[in-house]
Amino acid sequence: MGQKLKIAGWVSLGVVAGALTTVSLQTVARGVMSPMPLEEIQQLSAVFGLIKTDYVEPADDKKLITDAISGMVSGLDPHSQYFDKKSFREFQEGTSGKFVGVGIEITQEDGLIRIVSPIEGSPADLAGLKTNDLITKIDDTAVKGLSLNDAVKRMRGEPNTKVVLTILRKDESRSFPVTITRTEIKTQSVKAKMIEPGYGWVRVSQFQERTVDDFVRKVDDLYKQDPNLKGLVLDLRNDPGGLLDAAVAISAAFLQPNVTVVTTDGQLAESKAIFRASPEFYARRGSDPIKSLPAAIKNIPLVVLVNEGSASASEIVSGALQDHKRATIMGAQTFGKGSVQTVRPLGPDTGIKLTTARYYTPSGKSIQAKGIVPDIMVDESAEGDLFAALRTREADLEKHLSSGQGPEVKDEAREKAREAALKRLDEESKKPASERRPPEFGSDKDFQLQQALHQLKGEPVQVSQTKTERPAEKKDEEKTSTSDKPAESTTDDTKLPPASEPKK
Questions:
Q1: How many CA atoms lie within 13 A of 50 on its CB side?
Q2: Active-site pick, 189, 271, 310, 312
Q3: Full-model pTM
Q4: How far apart are CA 83 and CA 195, in angstroms?
Q5: 146 in Cβ contact with 158 (< 8 Å)
Q6: Of 74, 111, 204, 271, which is most buried with the most CB atoms under 10 A?
Q7: What Pfam families is this protein classified in (predicted)?
Q8: Which candidate in 337, 365, 370, 467 is catalytic?
């Protein structure tokens, strides 16, 4: 046994040393010289050998190594990640805005899946599925007990394959099966409508490859309906982020040419960059996608709605518009995801997503673990913010990166608000689901949207009586200067490698 352990240890040490030699060479090539921790490398080798010889059943070498890589990367911060083949493919689908499925936006309700809305022109839409339909079965599997992610995975699949959804339509008091053929779905990340004569609403739910083109088309439609628009609401609530170039383009649509939109800063020279409201920073195919927008959009009165779910790219947009005094930001302090992740390939279909920089607004404020503080705090409803304190923010995540602009201060007021919200949640959970459902964004019952409209008209706004800015950090150092050059194509979650061309 001792001899086996020694052999396994030496073999594993050779494997690990070879991999680390490659990493070491790459580190030297980047101009960062640091000694390798040999004692810890020997311990890693010893653990590998012990598992190979002593574990209750044979362990797969590849799985042990990939698990070690995954643990090493995920231990850094909440956004660094190792991509195996499957997760890398899913990540690419998320940024492209394309996937194979039935084409519905869903949420979970009382253990079932509720359809928020079918995507226009999708198989689900053509099959007649409606908003508020409940899915009770996916093929032969009951939905009750499935997580939302499990339900999504069962509805997705290969193109031209079929899935049977059992639908409960409450308002018609009937349940019926629908057979749907899966196809490639292109998600719609932009919605728009006239909320009343002279005032438009544009919602961006995520920044994807098609977002800028969709945004231009929707805004053009609003101006065709009313060439003399008096005001516009840009709704970024619950927008988790997405592609950086899309965020820069949406910002540039409202800003004067060539002003700073966002800066980044990290250890690498390529991480020190300034992104400006200029086509070279967002035009992918050479042409300027926002050039056709009406000139009036540069000066139209603008309100941006944000909340605790507004993260990353949506924080970049709201921060830029706020710093340049181009818009009034209303709602709640945003999530605070102000870090840049870069995808480094480890092979043809695997890689790591590594945090390489922080985001800063044009005035130099770090977004990370802080977020954007609205100019006007507005509650979710006339009764106040019922459960906002329960929502997780960047600063709540374990191992989150600091802002880099001073130590964090514990928010004791928020802890008390959490306790009150938990009691309220317990009371609300006893009510029927229909009474617990929040109003849809953009509807006439959308309280924050109505307050945004009041702001545009110069009417009184019902300002929050409970919201306060999260405690500021003590600023003990300024961020280092950034270079004035565009970085490689980036997402707010991820900076993609040059070899990763966007899907067409």
A1: 6
A2: 312
A3: 0.75
A4: 43
A5: no
A6: 204
A7: CtpB_N-like, PDZ_6, Peptidase_S41
A8: 337
Query: Can you state the percent helix, strand and coil of the chain, rounding each to 5?
Result: 35, 20, 45
Would the pLDDT of 376 be above 50? Answer: yes
Q: Is 272 a catalytic residue?
A: no
402 a catalytic residue: no
Name the one residue in this structure whose structure tokens are 């339509």: 169
Work out whether strand 134-138 and strand 104-109 pair parallel, antiparallel, or are unpaired: unpaired
Q: Are 134 and 118 in contact (CB under 8 A)?
A: no
Determine the Cα–Cα distance for residues 400 and 94; give it in Å rounded to an integer. Answer: 23
pLDDT in the model for residue 410 = 60
Rg over CA atoms, the chain:
25
Do 494 and 353 meet the contact criterion of CB atoms below 8 Å apart?
Answer: yes
pLDDT, mean of residues 293-298 = 97
Question: Given 77, 239, 245, 323, which residue is catalytic?
Answer: 323
How far is CA 190 from each of CA 54, 260, 272, rounded to the nearest angstrom? 55, 24, 31
Angle at 50 between CA 48 and CA 51, to 5 degrees: 65
pLDDT at 13 over 80: no
SS3 labels along 109-169: ECCEEEEEEECCCCHHHHCCCCCCCEEEEECCEECCCCCHHHHHHHHCCCCCCEEEEEEEE
Cα 447 → chain centroid: 24
Burial of 213 (0-12, 13-18, 19+ CB in 10 A): middle
